[in-house]
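Weekly sync, protein design subgroup
Attendees: M.S., D.O., the rotation student, P.L. (late)

Item 1: inverse folding check
M.S. brought a backbone from last month's batch and wanted to see whether the design step gives back something sensible before we order anything. D.O. pointed out we never logged the input encoding, so this time it goes straight into the notes. Structure tokens as presented (495 positions):
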């Protein structure tokens, strides 16, 4: 279908691609719509609902810009609105991929954290992707139920996926027309095995490992162009009135701010952030907030770089799949010695999930019916092993029980946990810095602190508390200042 660009100069549009349930084809169709719009010369701002790191990687490949997570449970509504407007700035259209089913949120009585919640915060109309396999008129009943469940959420249209034939498409169209609503059929995508994206236990294989061949994207874009009415979708992508936002709720630590207009004698703290195929799970907003708090991000690769970036005063090790690259990681002695030395010196170091695994004595993986153990950094005196079944999944709220590089005791933050690994019990001598809760249920102590090195399985979102990023930057600033003083003393010391 032809997408008209006659409206250049219009206000930025937005849509949410949602579904009644997981596995309906949201990711594939979202990528196809993004690719078509990008090929028509539009600037597409990609977003993903929920704490997902894999889908945003594919969005980035297609749109040529980072995809941003929007989560209404982890982050306050005011932050979600602010970051949506910030990252959508300068784009022609924001395309938001939903999560799970449209109304699936924190629990069975609230849609907080759901795609519907983000639709209300951003005002974005919803495009519902319905897997049409095995149904015809029943699909209309399903659409009616979703359309009437919450009148504050506008379902503008439907894309039927896995349609068996032209006759099947006709039945679906006729059924939808009987609803007597403004919901329009945007497209009928026929079943196509070539549109399969490989998956692994955490979801899809990452974009770093499977960068989507040009032939795949070409075929996907052609399918969507031919089988989806992009002109109609564009016309319906008009933002709606948004829900009122509330101020931050929850216990903060003291908010530290950085005023770039004030000349400071201390250099801007450089923070080394691991970013490669082994460490690719990071909230883009965490990095943005660190920059806005006065830090400088210095990306590095534990897989490929021989040493840490120069002049750093902090390290951030995000999550990822270090177990898949353990052989390469353990052989990169230069980086490993650099991180060990930095941790021993008291440099602030924050690690989460995969980054935490990297800091342990090593990881055990099963390959070809054999159990192999790969030695890693050994900063924390425990071993990790990979499991066949998922160990943990879900939202987490943490309260700091100690002062850490991320804030003072009593600071509350939110994030999520999702992993297929487990560790030996941490020795009692290693301090616990988190009290962890899930839906009000106390999960005990976690968040391990050793010599200014803080590590946890929980992926914290710095947008959940405006004090987190400034606290980490200030920790790095203090360390850099003390390190420079110590260096000057060493230079003045007579031989």
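Designed sequence read out in the meeting:
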């Amino acid at each position: 279908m032809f997408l008209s660009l006659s409206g250049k100069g219009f206000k930025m549009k937005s849509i949410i691609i949602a579904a009644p349930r997981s596995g309906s084809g949201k990711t594939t169709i979202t990528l196809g719509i993004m690719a078509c719009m990008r090929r028509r010369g539009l600037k597409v701002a990609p977003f993903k609902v929920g704490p997902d790191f894999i889908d945003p990687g594919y969005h980035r490949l297609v749109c040529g810009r980072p995809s941003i997570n929007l989560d209404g449970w982890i982050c306050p509504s005011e932050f979600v609105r602010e970051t949506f407007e910030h990252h959508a700035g300068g784009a022609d259209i924001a395309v938001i991929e939903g999560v799970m089913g449209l109304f699936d949120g924190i629990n069975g009585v609230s849609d907080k954290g759901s795609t519907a919640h983000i639709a209300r915060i951003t005002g974005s109309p919803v495009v519902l992707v319905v897997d049409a396999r095995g149904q015809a008129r029943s699909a209309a009943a399903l659409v009616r139920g979703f359309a009437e469940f919450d009148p504050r959420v506008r379902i503008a249209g439907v894309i039927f996926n896995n349609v068996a034939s032209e006759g099947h498409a006709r039945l679906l169209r006729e059924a939808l027309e009987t609803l007597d609503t403004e919901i329009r059929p945007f497209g009928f995508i026929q079943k196509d095995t070539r549109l399969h994206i490989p998956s692994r236990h955490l979801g899809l294989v990452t974009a770093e490992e499977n960068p989507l061949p040009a032939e795949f994207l070409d075929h996907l874009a052609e399918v969507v162009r031919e089988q989806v009415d992009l002109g109609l979708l564009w016309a319906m992508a008009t933002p709606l009135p948004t829900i009122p936002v509330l101020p931050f709720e929850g216990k903060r630590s003291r908010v530290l701010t950085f005023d770039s207009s004030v000349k400071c004698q201390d250099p801007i703290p450089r923070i080394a952030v691991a970013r490669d195929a082994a460490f690719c799970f990071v909230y883009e907003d965490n990095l943005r907030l660190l920059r806005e708090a006065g830090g400088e991000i210095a990306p590095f690769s534990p897989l490929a770089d021989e040493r840490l970036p120069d002049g750093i005063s902090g390290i951030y090790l995000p999550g990822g799949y270090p177990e898949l690259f353990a052989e390469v990681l353990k052989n990169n002695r230069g980086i490993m010695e650099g991180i060990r030395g930095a941790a021993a010196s008291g440099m602030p170091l924050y690690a989460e999930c995969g980054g935490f695994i990297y800091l342990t004595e090593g990881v055990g993986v099963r390959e070809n019916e054999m159990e192999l153990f790969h030695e890693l950094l050994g900063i924390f005196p425990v071993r990790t092993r990979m499991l066949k079944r998922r160990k943990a999944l879900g939202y987490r709220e943490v309260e700091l029980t100690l002062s850490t590089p991320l804030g003072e005791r009593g600071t509350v933050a939110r994030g999520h946990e999702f992993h297929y690994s487990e560790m030996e019990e941490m020795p009692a001598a290693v301090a616990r810095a988190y009290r962890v809760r899930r839906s009000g249920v106390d999960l005990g102590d976690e968040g391990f602190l050793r010599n200014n090195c803080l590590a946890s399985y929980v992926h914290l979102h710095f947008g959940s508390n405006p004090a987190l990023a400034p606290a980490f930057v200030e920790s790095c600033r203090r360390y850099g200042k003390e390190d420079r003083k110590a260096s000057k003393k060493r230079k003045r010391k007579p031989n």
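Discussion: The radius of gyration is 24 Å. Residues 468-492 form the longest helix (25 residues).
Action: P.L. to compare against the previous round before Friday.
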